[in-house]
Amino acid sequence: MAELVVWPGWIAGAAIGVYLALQYYLTGKPLGCSSGYGNLCGVVTRTPFFRRGEFESRTSWRLWFTLGLPLGGAIGVLSSGGAIEPSFHMGALYESVLPESLALRAVYLVAGGVLIGLGARMAGGCQSGHAINGLSLLNPPSLLASAGFFVGGVVAVQALFGWLG
Amino acid sequence: MKIAFLPLGALFGFLLSRGGATTYDFYAKLFLFQDPQLFWVIAAAVLVGAPLVQLLRRFEVRALFSGKPIEFQPKPMKRGLFAGAVMLGVGWGLAAACPGTVLTMLGEGKLAGLFTVAGIVLGTWLYGAWQDHRGAEPNAGLAAETRTEGR
């Protein structure tokens, strides 16, 4: 895997805080990542839910944002002096507990993804929309959601590494 | 101006990458309380973001591209919010990704995210199908919130 340059957390975080305000100032739209998956559902399915309300406009700005993210990842690798080397490897810690079989891992990751997608819509947003954006707006429901994200993450990872590690 | 979100998404993805949010190990270390890297990313983002957002609100700054008021829409409380948040958290820890970082990881060549993305799309769709089944309006709460905020 390519060696990534990683900044100290508080520096990258501060830059993301500035980004949040910059996006608001330039576009007037809030930071958020999970709603874009709803716009994608509107494009690839005929499910009515994804054709009305907040998903009415299927050629949403959110889809452009969604396409930009992998571009940013690629720039992150290339500007680290590395090359993009596609791999299913998941880093030393997860590799130490997850099954080696790609098929089993696919089932595991799809299941994890379903929890992420369903949970994000039930909560009304994800780590970027609720935690970074919502907490910056000092919004109480976003504080509750952020607490829930951390509770879920701690329980899942402690279980994963406690039972298998 | 929608296409402006392509470079904006790239900038945000780049910052996620530099923050370590696309590195699997940092997820495990966060929730095992071994390395607070990702905690500091979120905490610093809020500590810096909150006062800047307050300034934009205080001075009723208009969006540069559209000239329209900025859409500050605090997400409403709704039934199932906490349960959904915990579910998302469990998936976050298991898959070592969240909806934004997993796409950024794909750009870095971290292909495990392909399965996670498929799951997120499926989970999102399941919610919509469930809401259609219940006959619910999407984000009725958010629409109401927007009306009361409307200015």
| Cα-atom radius of gyration of chain B | 18 Å
Distance between the termini of chain A: 23 Å
N/C terminus separation of chain B: 22 Å
Number of helices of chain A: 7
Q: Look at the structure and give the mean pLDDT of chain A.
A: 94
Q: Main β-sheet of chain A, in a few words? A: none
Beta-strand content bin of chain A: under 5%
Which structural class best describes the helix and strand composition of chain B? mainly alpha
Structural class of chain A: mainly alpha
What is the global morphology of chain B? globular
Largest contact between chains: A-B, 130 and 122 residues
Number of strands of chain B: 0
Number of helices of chain B: 7
Count the strands of chain A? 0
SSE topology string of chain B: HHHHHHH
Q: How much is the radius of gyration of chain A in Å?
A: 18 Å
Catalogue the unreliable spans of chain A: none
| Share of helix of chain B, binned | 55-70%
Mean pLDDT of chain B: 91
Question: Quaternary state, please?
Answer: heterodimer
Unreliable stretches of chain B, pLDDT < 50, 5 or more residues? Answer: 143-151
Brief overview:
Chain A is mostly helical and 165 residues long. Chain A has 7 helices and no strands. Chain A starts with 8 loop residues before the first helix and ends with a helix.
Written account of the structure:
The complex is a heterodimer of chains A (about 160) and B (about 150). Chain A has about 160 residues and is an all-alpha fold. Helices cover about 65% and strands about 0% of the residues of chain A. Chain A contains 7 helices and no strands. In chain A, helix 2 packs across helix 3. The longest helix of chain A is centred in the last third of the chain and has 25 residues. The two termini of chain A are about 25 Å apart. The relative contact order of chain A is 0.12. Chain B has about 150 residues and is mainly alpha-helical. Chain B is globular. Chains A and B meet through helix 1, helix 2, helix 3, helix 4 and helix 5 of A and helix 1, helix 2, helix 3, helix 4 and helix 5 of B.
